[in-house]
Amino acid sequence: MLKFFILLISSLLFFNACSIKNPLIKKSKITYIDCPKTLILAPGAKISNDQITMILNKNYSMNCYLPEPESSKVVFEYNYTIETIFNNPSSEIEKVEFIVFVTNKTEDLKVHEETFYKDIQIDISKDEMQESYNQITNFSDKIILDQKLYKNGVKTFLAIN
């Protein structure tokens, strides 16, 4: 009986060690690449008036990848947060533009610009609102660039308006 278990265990180890292709394994088609240097433009980091103040949080994240291994496009995905301070909002929805500028490496030529229009909805009613109310809203957007531009070197700049 002991010999049977030893033979069974050694057989299992031998079969696992062989390079039998597992049909359940799926290879990822996404290839992650290094992200370019990205900065938040100082004048575009904050919007303020009597009713609201919106701040683009500097703790954003950025993922850069090729959607297919031989793709001619590069995807830049931004995950960012906008902090909104409501003083006396005139409406329940505030509109903001998230702007991404892409320049060449020397920053003397703008090669791409994209604007994302966002609505920030107030989470509480006006009756419940105190003197000022802070709200944090998370967003995610992506831009797609030609891989040739990426290989030549780019820098990205972020702003809200």
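^ that was protein a. below is b, sequence first then the tokens
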Amino acid sequence: MLKQEEPEAKEIALAIELFTNGSLNTFAMNTNVDTSNSLICYDILDLGKQLLPIGMLVVLDSILNRITSNRVKGKSTYIFIDEIYLLFQYEYSANFLFTLWKRGVRRIMFKDKDILISLTILLVTILVASSYYVISNLMKEKKENDIFKDLGQEIITDNVSNNVENNIPDEANNTQNNSNEIDQNPSPKSKATNYSIADLKSLKIKNSDLVGWIKVDGTNINYPVMQNEQFYLHRNFYKKYSQLGTPFLQEDCSIKTSDNLIVYGHHIKSCKMFADLVKYQNYNFYKKHKYIKFYTLENGETKENTYEICYVFKTTANENGFKFYSYTKFYDEEEFNSFFENCRKRELYNIGIETKYGDKFVTLVTCEYSQKNGRMVVIARKI
């Protein structure tokens, strides 16, 4: 696939490289188990988090092949799955169980009617449970997305009233809310016809952990940015549990004094949160979406900061990876040059933006799955 000209083919090849030639290539090898044995036990308990999904698919595919082979020979196949609920955690493994039933099990004629009835009930239960799991996750994700949309609508102000609305004294920005949850029913705010920059003061009052709002045109990245260590890794703006989490600023960063503001967000497969950062692997996408808007509160007023992307690279979050997260403040020019020399060594393509000591930067980070503990990093210079 790497030899094909289509960029999609190269992206797929890079995505699966870890499982074919990389450190997770366990299932790319020939098995040393005699799969023609009458009794085979598959154990996936000790598979790591990254290998577990593909391990499930390999096992299920092997079972399906055995069912098909036995059916041709006129043999029955008996399947026992312990802790089957584990297969409900992944949409593809749940769907694969349905495929097993559709393509294989339902076509086997059982002499014992009770077995057929029991198996039918079991598989219907599996189908219902897996459907519930998928639908439940989709509904939760939609609910979390709606929260972000409502927050986005609340901070939009019109050009006419922007100077007179929300004239809140600085003391209000220091209001602390230490409760575990915050009221999720903000009063509605009328839409304006002429939009200007976001006004963050009202959100700051609702949650003092707010430090800004990040927006990247041409992507789904349009979210509040929080700061409270890793509290918002799996919490929404209102401090309730959320599988999406909320983008957050690295704890040792300071909006006022840091040279490099590092913001983290989850890579959600439905292209939510910071998943769209991986689109910057494509140079043509970068050319159309070069700028990042980061709105911050300074002295009680919302400030619009524009950054131009200057480096895009991948690394890993382990001892062999580039520790870009250690650079939030450049104490001298030598440290500054060392940091960007490491960026240049890893950049996916040469953008050619000149950086100099004294510039300010924002760095967006999300997970990247072409390598173990991979990270996708996009750095932009303030203009």
